[in-house]
Amino acid sequence: MSRAHRRPPSPGVEWEYHKVTFSREFSRNVVTKLLVERAEHGGWELHQVRIGPDGVRRVVLRRKIIRQLRAC
């Protein structure tokens, strides 16, 4: 399961966050390959990884939101 959301913008930079959860059945190599694929094709970067006592990996990815300025 995964979901994306936006946090309030900090001065000058706005980030989009994407939470992904991997169950303990996924090996470390499989999780790495999935995260690399998201990084290469979606522009995501690793922000946080937490491994719970039950073995579930909770990963937070982020990417910059680039706003285009309007021409007058």
Keyword list:
alpha+beta; 1 helix; elongated; 72 residues; 4-stranded antiparallel beta sheet
Topology:
Layout: E1 2-6, E2 15-22, H1 28-42, E3 45-51, E4 57-64
Structural notes for this entry:
The chain is α+β, with helices and mostly antiparallel strands. It has one helix and four strands. The chain has one domain. The protein is 21% helix and 39% strand. The longest helix has 15 residues, at 28-42. It is elongated, with a radius of gyration of 15 Å. It starts with a strand and ends in an 8-residue tail after the last strand. The mean pLDDT is 86.
> Count of helices?
1
Work out the number of β strands.
4
Order of helices and strands: EEHEE
Mean of residue pLDDT values: 86
In short:
Helix content is 21%, strand content 39%. It contains one helix and four strands; from the N terminus they run ββαββ.
